[in-house]
Amino acid sequence: MAATGRKHLVKDFNHFMTCYLCRGYLIKPTTVTECLHTFCKSCIVQHFEDSNDCPRCGIQVHETNPLEMLRLDNTLEEIIFKLVPGLREREEQQELEFWKKNQPRENGQAERRQRLGLPDVVGDYGGRDEDDDGDEEDYHRNDPQIAICLDCLRNTGQSEATVTDLMKRFIRCSSRVTVGTIKKFLSLKLQLPSSYELDVLCNGEIMGRDHTLEFIYMTRWRLHGENTYPMVLEYRPRIDFG
């Protein structure tokens, strides 16, 4: 006998794919690890600007820094993109348009690059380190690019200077790079032991390891009135308050 089960429509799964805060499809689904509720990344981070509680169940996520309790759900993101035709393309186009519109213009450098026919990218510091292999030059080349400055944050109250300044503080990389990757980069360049923990901060606030540079720039740098460029991130040994 042939199966008589009815076909499911996309709207049948909307309850699992929509954000409680914006009511739209989940974009960069981000789960609160304390209660496992999931929201758009931008929505939940904006909510945590004013509250430390989950907007859905009201549980206190963290006493001081709820952003540390967020994790991206890449599997759910792929499922949503497969179920909703054209959603991925629309989001990528909107992201591209945002970066084109909000690309910092410092002393006319971007206009001059355009006149000279150079790539119109964010920043112009050269993200590759001196000892990088040439065959990696095209890695993430088509991603939106961002320039950052990595500064060693001192005066942490620790008796020993366990971390030092980088020889090359200015780098340019994909805006999709996460804080976790920045930490790995710092550990490699500073030759730190694998067990050594670092904090990465922007404007004095510790950033979650899953935050992308794009996200930090939009929510912690640009929206807080910082007009200087490149974006400055600070790093320090992790402080144990326990």
Could you explain how this protein is built, in words?
The protein has helices spanning 14-17, 41-47, 74-83, 87-102, 109-115, 179-189, 213-222, and strands at residues 29-32, 38-40, 70-72, 145-152, 170-174, 198-202, 205-206, 231-237. The chain has seven helices and eight strands. 22% of the residues are buried. Strand 1 and strand 2 (38-40) form a beta hairpin. It has 242 residues and is an alpha+beta fold. The chain starts with 13 loop residues before the first helix and ends in a 5-residue tail after the last strand. Residues 106-110 and 112-139 have low confidence and may be disordered. Strands 5-4-8-6-7 form a five-stranded mixed sheet, covered by helices on one side. It has a three-stranded antiparallel sheet with strand order 2-1-3.
Radius of gyration: 21 Å
Structural class: alpha+beta
What proportion of the residues form beta strands (DSSP E)? 15-25%
Uncertain parts:
106-110, 112-139
Largest pleated sheet:
5 strands, mixed
Helix content: 25-40%
Number of strands: 8
Subunit structure: Component of a PRC1-like complex.
Protein name: RING-type domain-containing protein
Function: Component of Polycomb group (PcG) multiprotein complexes; the complex class is required to maintain the transcriptionally repressive state of some genes.
GO molecular function: zinc ion binding
